[in-house]
Amino acid sequence: MAFTDSDATSQRISTSQNICQRCKNMGSICFSRKEYFCKDCFLRFIRGKQRKLMMEDKFKVQYPQKGVESVSQNVMLALSMGSSSLVLFDILFNLLLEQTKTHRGRQGFHLKVVIVDESTLSDSDYSVRDKVEELKEAYGIDHNCPVDVSFKIVDPNQFILDSDQVGSILIDNDFQSYITGNNSEDTKKLTITEILDQTPNRSSREDILEMVIYQLLIRTCLVINCQTILFGHSMTKLADQVISLTVRGRASLIGKRLTDAVEIHNGSEIHIIHPLRDVLKSEVVHYSEMLQLERFNVMNQKKAADLLKSKVNKSMTVNELTRSYFDSIEGDYSEVVSTVVKIGTKLDQLRSTEHNKRCIVCDIQLSSDPKHWLENITVNEPAPVVTEADINNLRIYSETCLLEDDASKLVMNPGSEVDMCYACLTSLQDIRSAFRWPVARASKEQILDEFTIGDDI
Amino acid sequence: MAFNPKTACHLCHSRKAVMKRPKTLQKLCKECFYNVFETEIHNTIISANLFHKGERVAIGASGGKDSTVLAHILKTLNERYDYGLELVLLSIDEGIVGYRDDSLATVKRNKEQYQMPLEIVSYKELYSWSMDEIVACAGIRSSCTYCGVLRRQALDRGAARLGIAHVVTGHNADDMAETVLMNLLRGDVNRLESSTNIITQSSGSPIKRSKPFKYTYEKEIVLYAHYKKLDYFSTECTYAPEAFRGTARTLLKSLEAIKPSCIIDIIQSGENFKLKPKKQRKNVVKRNTAQEIEVRGDGSVSLNKDGNKCESCGYLSTNKICKACILLKGLESSRAKVPIEGGNIAIDGAAQVTKKLETLSF
Ligand SMILES: [Zn+2]
Ligand SMILES: [Zn+2]
Ligand SMILES: [Zn+2]
Ligand SMILES: [Zn+2]
Fold first, then answer.
1. pLDDT (average), residues A443-450
2. Which residues of B166-204 are buried (b: 16+ CB within 10 A; e: fewer)?
3. Neighbouring C-alpha atoms within 13 Å toward the C-beta of A325
4. What is the pLDDT of residue B203?
5. For the whole model, what pTM was predicted?
6. Residues within 8 A of A (CB atoms), B 248-267 only
7. What does the entry list as the binding residues for ATP (chain B) (predicted)?
8. pLDDT digits over A178-192, tens only?
9. Contact A242 B184 (CB under 8 A)
């Protein structure tokens, strides 16, 4: 039986008279999945959903075996400071608290909370740092807290600092991308905001930013020595993602983003888990209201800042359109969210056919050859120029130096060929000039190597 | 007139740009637009190996823009690239007064314009029901479900009558993208991987179907028909699409407005959908008698061999009773009740059949 957000919200008002159906003792304060809950029973119910998705031994308290202390692992929580990740933080904190109480100070894992501070990307005055401090204060962290939990705030510009080269990416008419190197002095000056400002529209910006943040989280995970990343996405959010990734031509990521997946980065395995996969957005809201977690939420300020930023181009993004679509059909087709997540979890991670080819922008492993695919269905050849008048026009055109578009730049300085995934290719192909992008440290040698060959024309 | 390089076509840099290409937003001259439009379809045909020399191909012609442009393009490409095809127009008369009468007149003109033979098969003669009669009986709500099932079989039967094994249809990239979204939104696991297939063939059916416009934008088809002054019938079918599909269509249109590439982006995604390997599925096939039937995972029933015939109408079908017959039987039983019990029961009966049909895999 699939439960839906509307099941949860429809009778919110009239719940006070009803008795909780779980404990049959307390008065209920919320209604979800056709059941009345009191506060304690509801919190337990939602926490149970998380436990079901984190059943493995590695999250449980380990006792020394034959006198040898077992190493408990580090688990990273990607905290966006939105409602669902705050709920997941609360759940995990309480889980660890319970473990330390029942196992005399032992806990199943070390929790490392990582926040990518997107407030630095806008001119707005909201502060993620302050909110994180409030959160820590509220949970008594830093004050002899029995739970071992640490926080790390990451500046998105770290993404550029991690690399020591800024390249210029160009895409030609046949969808081949090239990169030319710049001196490393440039690297320190370029900011993520400047990178994002190069994108042709809000949707591309959103897409590229999402990729930057994801890569940053993966890199941070390795730096702080974690083996697992937890994301707080609710079922509702995951349904949005299935459609949004499909629309952006990133279907190959769906399998990875919905189910437990293994991300392999620089030879290290990172386990990705979505512990709130079975929790509805409306339940996140109930949970959050019960514990007043909304005071730590920065998403509303972030959205306002994003909109301020985009006063030139007010058109919605792919994510925003997808969200409003689900909102608009929820009433009439209430089971769509769970249906979409269910089919999403049945999708496989794509097996790479082109070994070790990764997208220069988003770093995903290429599973197909997008250049060839696009070239076949998007022709960029002109019809023959035959009449004398037209031939004359063509001459005038080339004389007036209008040929300063990508193609002619390429002729002068082709750079070296790089691989790009389908989605990044379509996101960036409308850019008239070169796209400046930091080149990851790992591929530096390879890039430098290529630069020395391709320059002589 | 003086040539202004600033308004020149993005591709040839010599002729004046007259349009913005919907797929890429490039400003193009007419000639370059024709060139890219036609070449892309040719590329699609060649890379999918759609045709072989000497093949007889039926064009599912409705008189609408998609199939009219399809007939024009196939004629053009067949001559230009020497495909060696024998092209025939195949039309279905659903029996929708007003809509179909005018569109059939268009197809008849197309027959002369393109010098192609035309074959018309009607629902009435095949099923003894016209679409108008079906709607009167079953209600307008499920009209598209009915029509889809009946048209599919009617095209097959028409082609079979002509001795043709390949029907091409005017389904375009927008239709493809919409189907991909629909399969996700409906959670249709059985169709997800195949939703973007360019060639489809139901098992047991000798008729192959293909979609040369798989990557062609609907808006570009409209523009092409407009600039080439093609004669087509532009009214939409009187019976609007099923409401839920309508929501997906609206979503797609808003997405296209902010990101024109999203239509092929969705198709690209659709081509990359890969389901996880199936867990050992319960095998319910019984081998003791040839008459035993298999119950598929989706609840549909099938005989265990290809090339079976519908027990009711004798038409090729993998199911014991073909979908058209299941649907028509429901109609017959509800029509029988109409005079005595009024319309409501009839509609309920038809709605039940529709529900039953939705669980079958087409
Ligand atoms: Zn209770
Ligand atoms: Zn990419
Ligand atoms: Zn041109
Ligand atoms: Zn039959």
1. 45
2. bbbbbbbbbbbbbbbbbbbbbbbbebbbebbbbeeebeb
3. 30
4. 66
5. 0.86
6. 251, 254-255, 257-259, 261-262, 264-266
7. 60-62, 66, 92, 170, 175
8. 888 765 566 667 899
9. yes
- C-alpha span between B83 and B75 (Å, rounded): 10
What pLDDT score was predicted for residue B102? Answer: 80
Residues with Cβ within 8 Å of B279's Cβ and at least 6 positions away in sequence, in order, are none
**Cα–Cα distance, A82 to A93 (Å, whole number):** 17
Using the structure block, give the residue that is written with the tokens 């071992």: A148
How many other β-carbons are positioned within 10 Å of the β-carbon of residue A287? 27
Ligand 1 centroid – CA A290 distance (Å): 14
Provide the token pair at B206: 């000798």
Alpha helices, H only, A54-171: 83-102, 128-138, 158-161
Q: Do A422 and B275 touch (CB under 8 A)?
A: no
| Contact call for B276 and A348, based on CB within 8 A | yes
Helix (H) or strand (E) holding A51: helix A39-53
Better pLDDT: B138 or A325: A325
What CATH number labels A54-60+71-154+199-349? 3.40.50.620
Are the C-beta atoms of residues A213 and A156 closer than 8 Å to each other? Answer: yes
C-alpha–C-alpha distance, residues B240 and B146, integer Å: 12
Q: Do B13 and A346 lie within an 8 Å CB cutoff?
A: no
Q: How many of the other CB atoms lie within 10 Å of CB of B82?
A: 9
Residue-level pLDDT at B285: 38
| pLDDT score of A237 | 93
**A107-136 per-position pLDDT tens digit:** 889 999 999 998 888 776 778 899 999 999
Are residues A400 and A151 in contact, defined by beta-carbon separation less than 8 angstroms? Answer: no
- The predicted-structure confidence for A308-346, as pLDDT tens digits, reads as follows 665 545 688 999 999 999 988 877 787 899 999 999 989
- Characterize the bridge pairing of strands A177-181 and A165-171: antiparallel
Burial of residue A148 (number of CB atoms within 10 Å: 0-12, 13-18, 19+): middle
Nearest to B209 by CA among B218, B195, B193, B197: B197
Tens digits of residue pLDDT in B48-69: 999 999 999 999 998 889 999 9
Q: How many CA atoms lie within 13 A of B106 on its CB side?
A: 24
Distance B39 CA to ligand 2 centre (A): 28
Q: Which domains does chain B have, with CATH numbers?
A: 31-272 (3.40.50.620)
Length of chain B: 362
Position of tokens 């189910």?
A: A259
Contacts of B90 (CB under 8 A, 6+ apart): B58, B59, B60, B61, B118, B119, B121, B155, B158, B159, B162, B164, B167
Cβ contacts of residue B31 below 8 Å, gap of 6+? Answer: A382, A383, B12, B15
Closest CA to B224 of B19, B13, B10: B19
Where do the domains of chain A lie?
A: 13-45, 54-60+71-154+199-349, 163-197+351-443
ipTM score of complex: 0.87
Phi, psi of A19 (to 5 degrees): -90, 145
Q: Any chain A CB within 8 A of the CB of B181?
A: yes
